């Protein structure tokens, strides 16, 4: 719920907010965006854009790992 509050605070001052996450935190980013859009439907927030990608990272054991990333743009209608 902390991320939802922080995002709503930013949306009160900015025209849009981008929620970014990677790896196992992608589900949390999606949950935050859905809470804002669906539970604050009287305010009129919408998901403007969603971008997905993957980054190649070098792990501690020297292997290259692909990590998924997501960026979700939320704005007022």
TrEMBL record:
GO MF annotation terms: DNA binding
UniProt entry tagged with the keyword Protein biosynthesis: no
Keywords, in A-Z order: DNA-binding
Domain spans labelled DNA/RNA-binding protein Alba-like: 1-52
Name of the featured protein: DNA-binding protein
Native organism: Candidatus Nitrosotenuis cloacae
Upper lineage: Archaea, Nitrososphaerota, Candidatus Nitrosotenuis
